[in-house]
Amino acid sequence: MARLLLIEDDLTIRTPLVRALRERGHAVAAASTAMTGLRDALDDRPDLVVLDLGLPDLDGRELLRMLRAVSAVPVIVATARDDEREIVRVLDAGADDYLVKPFTAAQLDARVRAVLRRGPGGPADEDPTVVVGGLRIDPRSRQVSLDGEPVELTPREFDLLRHLATRVGEVVTKRELLTEVWQIPYGGADKTVDVHLSWLRRKLGESAQQPRYLHTVRGVGVRLVSPEVAG
């Protein structure tokens, strides 16, 4: 049973959604404003937050930034905003998934289960630690070290690196990364993959022009390799 926090101001959406998610076995709390939702997220520490963007006191994207500053709780944005640029901005701001209204409770429940499977306590906890050169990736603790020094990654950066680590030496396409890491269809939003790869490279002390571990194969995707192998 997952503990969910639904931050949604529309009572006609909030009430039936809470009821339907509870019927599917989740423990659901609800908030109708951004600041109440932020307080509840910090006090009650839910397993996942479902966040509407059109809140009365604060835009949901700003609330997402505030949450990400203090918490790694998974967040699914559920909103009527379907502009592709908005979707990319929200995902880049730290959302784990994006669902456009109208949607059914069954669709939301499927997204919740998919996001939670990728987080601590999901199947990844059974994965062995991956060592690639001086890079060490531990799915159980969600910790990464490089040459013995810890590397601080955001939840999304870790998920991206972890997925690449399951395919060491192979070229992984952006289509696969968007599908498996972001759980969204391939399209113009592949820009978000480039942005996160850039951030990840910076934290690994490399760049696209001078790669060590993350090597771009132009027009295809990216592969994770040991510097010794790449050299």
Could you explain how this protein is built, in words?
Helices cover 41% and strands 20% of the residues. It has 231 residues and is α/β, with parallel strands linked by helices. The chain folds into 2 domains: 115 residues, 3-Layer(aba) Sandwich (Rossmann fold); 95 residues, Winged helix-like DNA-binding domain superfamily/Winged helix DNA-binding domain (Arc Repressor Mutant, subunit A). A hairpin with a 4-residue loop joins strand 7 and strand 8. The longest helix has 14 residues. It is elongated, with a radius of gyration of 18 Å. This is DNA-binding response regulator, OmpR family, contains REC and winged-helix (WHTH) domain.
Descriptive labels:
2 domains, 9 helices, OmpR/PhoB-type_DNA-bd, DNA-binding, single chain, four-stranded antiparallel β-sheet, alpha/beta, elongated, transcription regulation, Rossmann fold, Arc Repressor Mutant, subunit A, Sig_transdc_resp-reg_receiver
List the helices and strands and how they pair.
Blueprint: E1 3-7, H1 11-23, E2 27-31, H2 34-44, E3 48-51, H3 60-70, E4 75-79, H4 84-92, E5 97-100, H5 105-118, E6 130-132, E7 135-138, E8 143-146, E9 149-151, H6 155-165, E10 172-173, H7 174-182, H8 191-203, E11 214-217, E12 221-224, H9 227-230
Parallel strand pairs: 1-2, 1-3, 3-4, 4-5
Antiparallel strand pairs: 6-7, 7-8, 8-9, 10-12, 11-12
Helix pairs in contact: 2-3, 4-8, 6-7, 6-8
